[in-house]
Amino acid sequence: MHGVRAHVRRLAVVGPAVNDHRHALRVAVGLAVPGLALVVSGHPDLIIYAVFGAVTGMYGRAEAHRRRIEHQAQAAAILVAGVATGVALSGVHAGPWVLVVATVVFATVGSVVTDHLALKPEGPFFGIFALGAVAAVPAGRVAPWAAVSICAATALLCLLISFAGSYRGRLRDPDAVSPARAATRPRPSDTLVHAARYASAITIAGIGGLFLGIDHANWAMAAAAVPLAAADPVSRVHRGLHRIVGTFAGLAVTAVLLLPRPSETLLGICVMALLFPTELFMARHYALALGFFTPLIMVMTDLAAPGEPWALLADRGIDTVIGVGAGIAVALIIRGPGRGQDSDQNIKVAVYPAA
């Protein structure tokens, strides 16, 4: 019982704030500018592409200025690649099995690349998420080049905001030097094991979702990736539990937003407003942050591909349980090389969990 209580207390701990509001504001502005442009021009349904570009600003949160910009540029390339792949799959009306295969390949390669680059937050989650979410958008809503351009332009804006913040900080205190920390990269054997986890978990989640006849199997595959960025088995289980608790709390908020069927303009504004609290709490309490991030994702999905709200809510809940279950199972079964010990010590705990 003592061990159970300790785990419950750990799930409830909210970390201390460390200038979270400044970072969250940078990220929110990165979405607000293109988001408002889309809403004013009458295209709030295209905000999904801007959201994934704005994710660029989430990278390098606690890193030195130069390293943060470098890592954000690398993350932007991965995000744009994910969106471009999703747009291509949507354009050819790829079937669900093709989507599963494409996502598994992207996740496996993305795991190796993100480990090599030592990106923070770790793992290919956001690229996977971008691919699956965009692939589910019906073709013809916008020209493929325009969709990718919205994502790329938003990512570029986030880079400019980050650069401006770094320059302003140096002007304010020219003698201040951010500590340069060498990137910690896993051993090649650990990188391959980590990639194998992503491939296995996402395959299981994708196939499970399809066999159960659940729409939006991309949500199950994305959820499967969530626990895998943590450094040890216990942390992976906690990550998965946070994902489930936070998602279901967020679904309650989503119901309040979607069931009255407000205008697309209001929903577009909600997407922009929800990004700030998402990033504000992401490093402090993952489940709490998901209470905001889940409705953000659900609303932008409904804008891009309108559906029956209750069906969307049910699919999201079921897919999350399937994906997290697959991710935790694989994380506990596939360990790093060694005698019963997890050798992920070079794959550090993420600055914050993958969303």
UniProtKB/TrEMBL annotation:
Keyword tags: Membrane, Transmembrane, Transmembrane helix
Stretches that traverse the bilayer: 74-91, 97-114, 145-164, 241-259, 265-282
UniProt keyword annotation of Cytoplasm present: no
Pfam families membership: FUSC_2
Protein name: FUSC family protein
Membrane topology classification: Multi-pass membrane protein
Intracellular or extracellular location(s): Membrane
Every Integral membrane bound transporter domain range: 207-330
